[in-house]
Amino acid sequence: MSRAALGLGLGLGLLAFAWAAPLERWAGPFPAHMLRHMVLVALAPPLLLAGLPGLRAFGALPVALAAALEFVVVWGWHVPALHEAAYFSTPVFVAEQASFLLAGLVVWAAALSVPRLAGAGGMLLTSMHMTLLGALLILAPRALYAYCGLSQQQVGGMIMLALGTPAYLAAGLWLTSRALDGEAPA
């Protein structure tokens, strides 16, 4: 099996898991949201980009602008009113999920399409804001969302830290190592 086919299969498998598995029943509503969120922005996009090179067109934005767009999408959907609208309304949920995946594809494609150190910078910026949001969810003195308790919110923040931060950090380190080896963009 080729690397592209493996990447595509793993990426599509993660998307299927995120959208079809009974995550709410297994983990609760907010941890389920956060697991889906991390799959859509941090885990599936690089695999999908490896499997479908045509998706690299999402990398047309400068990496700093792509990282800023991803920041606005992620933080915007975590504003309590928007977040709860997505939880209680299927059309809003679909819009949220689509925007998460699109933002993930944009930031990863941009980071992988520019000189390696610029891509590493984009991954670092993304890692920093994901880490901050995860920490805020964990350290908040009360639940920010009416449908879940503080402990659910804290578990969701831990999922964000456990999946998002290392994914972006590892990508940034990999891009930096490739830049130091003198390799051109992928």
> So how many helices?
8
Percent of residues in helices: over 70%
Distance between the termini: 20 Å
**Strands, total number:** 0
What's the pLDDT, averaged over the residues? Answer: 93
| Overall SS class | mainly alpha
Strand proportion:
under 5%
N-to-C order of helices and strands? HHHHHHHH
Largest sheet: none
Q: Rg, please?
A: 16 Å
Low-confidence stretches: none
Q: What general form does the structure show?
A: globular
Written account of the structure:
The chain is mostly helical and 186 residues long. Helices cover 80% and strands 0% of the residues. It is built from 8 helices and no strands. Helix 3 crosses helix 6.
Descriptive keywords:
186 residues; mainly alpha; 80% helix; 0% strand
